[in-house]
Every structure is written in structure tokens, then in C-alpha cells.
Model the fold of this input.
Amino acid sequence: MRLRSKLWWAVALLVVAAGAGYYLRKPAPAANTATAPAPSAASTTPVAVVDIKASDLLLVEPHILINSLPISGNLKAINTVAVKARVPGELIEIKGREGDSVKAGEVVARIDPSEFQRRLRQAEQQADAAKTQIDIAKRQYDNNKALVDQGFISKTALDTSQASLAGAQATYNAALAGADVARKTLEDTVMRSPISGQISARLAQPGEHVGLDMRLMDIVDLGSLELEATLSPADSVDVRIGQDAVLSLEGRAQTINAKVLRINPSVQTNSRSVLVYLRLPTTSGLKQGMYAQGDLQLGQLKTVAMPLSAVRTDKPQPYVQVVSNNKVAHQAVTLGQRGHLAQQANGEAWVAISDLPANSQVLPAAVGALREGTPVRLITAASPAVAPSTTAKP
Done:
């Protein structure tokens, strides 16, 4: 049994050895030499083509550029007055309220005249008394003159009577002047409007005791308005009398024209500004104190200009996006005078530019920022709207 077991183990070992030898002698499988296909050019990232209407492109060409200066301020009536009490006393009448119209010379207020009437009578009676003294002195002088002529009295008595007559005459003249002053004071109890206009403020009521120079009401003439604009000293250098301006008023969509009427020759001490006054045409509905803003036209220049919005400033130097060979290119420009086109008063801001070839096609601001080299496809207005397409990069 022991011998048989040993033989079995020997046979098993031989079988295992034979199998291992066969495996080692078996040729290895051929290596797979095929490589993955190289990616084609068509498999790269596509680039978007921007469709732009040809009518939206801005053509670089000369324009008449209006050099303008922004101005703003409040409207003021050229003629405005404050009616004041010329004498103290009790206010017995005041006519009109805010918004009522008055005419020049119309009575607008009265102060109780009783005291001033009595003063006038007193002054008139003093004048009458002074006139009586003149009559007495005149008769005395005539008598003395006759006696001197006859040689009954000396000339010294005549000189004395002549001095008395002159003194009486002076007293009478002073009394007349006093009566005139009292009469003028009585007339001042009645206040009249010095201009035609509308009442803008009523500051007293009947029955009040008013003092001298107390304001009773304000009257403005809306038939002549002007804009009081504030400018810096540097900006005011180019302003001249007669220059035109286009203004927009708060609450009004329609613009109005104005003209420089006066220029203050001094710089304001507190604000370091210069006041410029522009005359407005007679227009219904305007009110004193309304805010207005607009552009003052300093002159015009024929130059190559573009809308200021088309100039981009996200680089160290300003530039515009031009279409060249159906691609976007960034062209640096130098900015000059700003203003607006002559045919677009108070419209979009334009700026004079240089370093840009004539007849260049510039993308408007609405397109946004595009990278240089971006393909552009121009479409006509008659073409149907097409979604942005992609093309393979060569």
C-alpha cells in the first residue's frame, strides 16, 4: 500500500510538470498595434458667428458736431416786486390772494388814514398861520418904505421890517413843505401794484397792525422769465451773450429755446461759481422756481465723430469695435470734443475721434463687448431672423 501511494504521487507530479511545460512553450498572443483614430479638425470647439444687421453698423464719416455745455438752474421772473407798508398803522383792506392777477397802478392794500389826515390838517393850518404873518410883515414893510421915502424914519427901520418879511416868508415856505410831507404820508396809506402780474404770496390780513416796510404781498410777472444757471469759472470762459440753448423743463416733454441775456462779471464768493442768465420766450404754463436743464451751444465743428456710447473703455486706451473682413477688430482711438449732432438737438452725446480710417464700420453699443477675431455675418433687413450659427474653425 505504501508503494502504491508513492507511485500515485509520482504520476500526479509528472502530469502537473507536463502541463506547465506546455503552457510555457505556447506562443504569446500578438499585441494589438491599432491606435485610436486622431481627432479630426471638425471635432474642435465651434466658434459662434454673430449676426448683425447691416443697417445697424455705424459708418465713420464727418459730421457737424455742436459743442455744447450742460447747464441747469431755476426759472426766475425778471419783474418781481414786494409790496410793503410805507407807513405804520392798522391794515383796513388788502385785495387779492395767491394766483389773482393785478394791473399796474391797481390799489392792493389800504392802511387806516385817520391819524395822517389830522396831521395834514394841522400842517395846512400852520401854513395858513404863516401866510397871515407874511401879510402883516408885508404891510409893515410897505408902510416903513413910504415913511423912509418921505424922510420921516431912518433906513434902519426899513431894513428891520424887510428882515421880518423875509422871516415870515421862510416860515410860510417851511409850513408848506410840512403840509406836502403830511399829504405824501396820507397818500402812502394807499398801496398800489407797481407792475402787472400775479400775486405769489399774501403775507398780511385786514385788522393787523403793520410796521414800516413790512411786506404785505409779492407780485411776479410771468410774462418775462429767465433761467439763472450756475457755471464753474472755467466753463464760463467760452460763454457769450447771444448764444442759444435748448432746455428741458420738469414735467414737460417739449423742449424750449433760450438765449444768453446777461453774464455776471463776478465770481460768487461762497460757491466760487459764475451766474449766467438766459432769457426764455413767453410760454404759457411756466412758473417761477421751476427747474430746467439743457445744453448751451458754444459753437460747431465739422469732424469725424461717433456716438459716445460706441466707445469702449475697458482697456487702458479707449477703442471701438470695427468689422474688418467679416471679423471683429479692436481699434484704439483718440477722443476729442464732445457734443451732439446739429440735426439731433439735445440728443445722444457724440465725440470727435481720430486714428480711425474713413468709412470704417463700427459696431454700436447695443452689440456689447466681443472678442477680437469673432466672426460676423451681416444680414439685410429683408432677411429672416436666423439663430446664431456655428462654423468649424479651420
The domain at 81-202 is CATH 1.20.120 (Four Helix Bundle (Hemerythrin (Met), subunit A)). The radius of gyration is 51 Å. The first strand starts at residue 47 and ends at 48. The CA atoms of residues 107 and 254 lie 38 Å apart.
